[in-house]
Amino acid sequence: MSIVAISAPRQRQGELGQFLTPAPVAAFMASLFGPLPDLVRLLDAGAGAGALTEAFVSRLCEKKDAVHAIEATLFELDPFIQDALSETMRNCQRVCAQAGIRFTFAIHSTDFIREMSARLAHDLFVTPPPTFDAAIANPPYRKINVDSTERCNLRYAGIETSNLYTGFISLIQRLLEPGGQLVGITPRSFCNGPYFRNFREDFLDNLEVHRLHVFESRDAAFRDDSVLQENVIFHAVRGRKQPGAVVISSSSGENGDVVAEKLIPFTEIVHPHDPEKFIHIPSASGHAAAKKTMDALHSSLGSLGLSVSTGRVVDFRLKSALRREPEKDTVPLVYPCHFNGGTVQWPKPEGRKPNAILNNAETRPWLVRSGVYLLTKRFTSKEERRRLVACIFDPAAVQAEWLGFENHLNYFHSNGHGLDRSLAAGLFAFLNSTVVDQYFRRFSGHTQVNATDLRKLAYPDRETLQAMGAEMRTLDLSQDELDELVEKFLHARR
What we know:
Layout: H1 10-16, H2 23-30, E1 39-45, H3 51-63, E2 69-75, H4 82-99, E3 102-108, H5 112-120, E4 132-137, H6 149-156, H7 164-174, E5 176-187, H8 197-206, E6 207-215, E7 231-238, E8 245-251, E9 260-265, H9 266-269, H10 285-295, E10 307-310, E11 322-323, E12 330-334, E13 339-340, E14 343-344, E15 356-358, E16 368-369, E17 373-377, E18 390-393, E19 402-405, E20 409-413, H11 421-431, H12 434-443, H13 451-456, H14 462-471, H15 479-492
Parallel strand pairs: 1-2, 1-4, 2-3, 4-5, 6-8, 12-19
Antiparallel strand pairs: 5-7, 6-7, 8-9, 10-20, 11-15, 12-15, 13-14, 16-19, 17-18, 17-20
Helix pairs in contact: 2-3, 3-4, 5-6, 5-7, 7-8, 10-12, 11-14
C-alpha cells in the first residue's frame, strides 16, 4: 500500500510538533510486535495520515496469523490531514477484507491529551477510558510550558512532564491492557537529563522494555522534514517486571538496510543503583569498551572536591548590563563562541555575542571570582565530532578579578573558586577523550550536555588527573594524541 499524499503545510506540522512517519520506518515498527489476540484493539494517537496503522495492518495481513479482527482508534487534531487519514483507513479496510480480517476504525478529531487526561482522572462527568491491546505511536514533540493547557491537562491525570511526546507516551501506556504492546518512535532525549526523570521512572515502572533501536545518522528517520533530533524506536509491554535482557539494534535508516542486533542485560541498560534511571543504549562497537573503561573508575566529582554548575548569566535577563566591547566597570563575559580549541579567545570583537557585562550590585550574584576553570559547552552542533567539548579558561590570558559565564556553558569549580592548573588540564584531557564521548553516547541521544550528566560520570582519581595534566605541554593536541595520553594513565592505574 502507498501512503496517501499529504497536503498539510510544513509550517503547520512544525507548529503542532508533527513529523510524519516515512514508510520504511513505519514498516519496521510494525514488524516489532509480538503475538497478538484474535481481536486487536489498536490505538494510534497523533495518527497523521495513518502511515503507522497502515503498516500495522499490512504486516498482519502478510503474516496471516490468528488475528481475525482489528478495531483501530485514531486521534488526529489537524484538519488539513483528516481526508488523507480517512482515505488511508478505507484502504486498510479493503486490504483486510482480502485477507479475511475484519477492520473497523474510528477517527477522533479531538485533543488526545485533553480527552484522555480527563477520562483517566476518573472525572464524574466523562466516560471511563478505553483500553487497548496494541498501540503504535509517533507522537508530536515540542516543549510544553509549566502553565500551558497541555501541562495542566496532564497534571490532572497525575502526569508531570515537559514535552508533548512524553505526555502522549505516558497516557498511551495507561490505556494498555496488562500485556498490551506499545511500539513507538520518539526523540531519544528522555533517556537522560533531569527534565525527564519523572517520565523515565513512570515508563520503567509500568512498561517492560523488550527492544531499543537507534539510527546511525541523526537525521535518518525524518530526513524529509530536516529533523536533526536523534530518535529511538522502542517495543515495550505493559507490565512491572523488566526482562533479563533487551534487544539493542541499529540501522542507517535507509530502506532495506541491514539491522544489527545484540542482546544486552537489562542491568547494563538501566544501572540498578542509578537514582536518575538513565537509559543506556550501547549500539556502537566502541560503547562496550568505553563502559568497561569507565566502570574501572571510582571517583566522583564530590570525592575530588569539585563541583560542576551551569553558567549563571542568563543574558536576556541581564540585557541592560551587557556590553559588546569591554569598557570601564565591566568584566569578561564568556560564551561558547569564545571557545578556540582548548582555550578561551576573549574578547571576540567580530562575534555576534557581547563580550562584557557590568560589574555592579545587580550583576555581582551572577559572577564568579577569576581563576582557572574547566568549561564545557551545554549544546554542541551537528558538525562537532564530540558530544563533550571542553576548554580551559586561563586567567593569565584574560586578566580580570571577576568573570561571567553565560548560561550555555557548564563550569567545573572548587567550592565556587578556580581549579589547580594541572587538575584542570587533566580534566580537559579526560572529558575531551574518545572513551568519554563513546560512554556519553550510550545514554545521551541529543546535543545537550547537562550539569547532571557531568555529575554522574565516574572520574579518574585526583592524583591521576593531576599527573595527566602535568604531562600536557600544550592543549593543542590531536584527538589521537589526547586519546593516547588518557589511555596511558588510565591503563597505568588499573
